Amino acid sequence: MRFVDEDGEPVVLELEPPATPGQIEALEAALPCPIPEDIREGLQVATGLVGGPLESVSLLGLDGGFGVEEVFPHAHPIAHDGFGNYWIVDLLPESKEWGPVYFACHDPPVVVYQSPNVAEFIAAVGRYWEAGCTNPIDQVHEEHSRRIWVENPDLLARREALSSGDRELRSFAATLPENALIADLRDARTGQGFSLGRFGRQQRSVRWGTSRIWALVPPERRPGLLARLFG
Question: Contacts for 35-40 with beta carbons within 8 Å, 24 or more apart?
Answer without folding.
Answer: 36/96, 36/97, 36/98, 38/97, 38/119, 39/98, 39/118
